[in-house]
């Protein structure tokens, strides 16, 4: 929890340099993410805390990003990797996950659908971990220029050496993203 609070405070102190700040909530979970553009890439810093299960994860990532036009709609995307540290059910892991994200704005309108997936097999999962993955989808609406509200579903799962499997978080959420 301290790591997430620290990351959010550090993010706020660099807001003049940021590209986006994204915060979402469910009944038991808070997630925060800061993203900064750098050339054709995007640095991301994020953290998630589940109060009920006392599970948490934090990550830092670098994605090669870009956008294109698809049949009159805008498609944003990125591929790359994230380094995760996570704690679930008194087990800890670190992992290097590869994956990507996509966001499709229909007909240049304010509505978008996005998704992401990152996976780390056993060869790049350390400490007590065997595997780690995070997947999610969401529907977004741009209320005013650069400000989005959204609802979505996600699953963040860790598998450990003792054959234990733990969902760090699983279920629905609602959030807000602000681009600077």
Task: Describe the fold and architecture.
This protein has 180 residues and is mainly beta. The chain has one domain (2-173). It is 7% helix and 73% strand.
Can you give me a brief rundown of this structure?
By secondary structure, the chain is mainly beta.
Hey, roughly how much beta strand do the residues contain?
Answer: over 45%
- Write the element-wise H/E pattern from the N-terminal end onward: HEEEEEEEEEEE
| Percentage of residues assigned to helices | under 10%
What about the largest sheet?
A: 10 strands, antiparallel, barrel
Look at the structure and give the mean pLDDT. 91
End-to-end distance: 26 Å
- Order of strands across the main sheet: 1-2-3-4-5-6-7-9-10-11
- Radius of gyration, CA atoms, in whole angstroms: 16 Å
Uncertain stretches: 12-18
Shape: globular
Number of domains: 1
- Helix and strand content put the structural class at mainly beta
The overall strand count is: 11
Features:
180 residues; mainly beta; ten-stranded antiparallel β-barrel; globular
């Amino acid at each position: 929890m301290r790591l997430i609070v620290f990351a959010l405070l550090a993010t706020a102190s660099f807001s003049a340099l940021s590209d986006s700040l994204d915060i979402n909530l469910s009944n038991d979970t808070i997630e925060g993410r800061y993203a900064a553009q750098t050339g054709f890439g995007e640095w991301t810093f994020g953290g998630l805390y589940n109060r009920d299960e006392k599970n948490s994860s934090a990550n830092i990532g670098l994605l090669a990003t870009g956008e294109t036009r698809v049949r009159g709609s805008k498609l944003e995307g990125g591929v790359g990797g994230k380094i995760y540290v996570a704690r679930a059910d008194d087990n800890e892991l670190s992992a290097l996950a590869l994956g990507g994200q996509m966001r499709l704005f229909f007909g240049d309108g304010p509505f978008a659908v996005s998704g992401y997936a990152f996976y780390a097999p056993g060869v790049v999962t350390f400490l007590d971990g065997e595997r780690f993955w995070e997947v999610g989808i969401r529907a977004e609406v741009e209320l005013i220029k650069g400000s989005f509200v959204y609802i979505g579903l996600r699953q963040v799962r860790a598998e450990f050496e003792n054959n234990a499997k733990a969902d760090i978080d699983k279920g629905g959420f609602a959030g807000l993203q602000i681009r600077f």
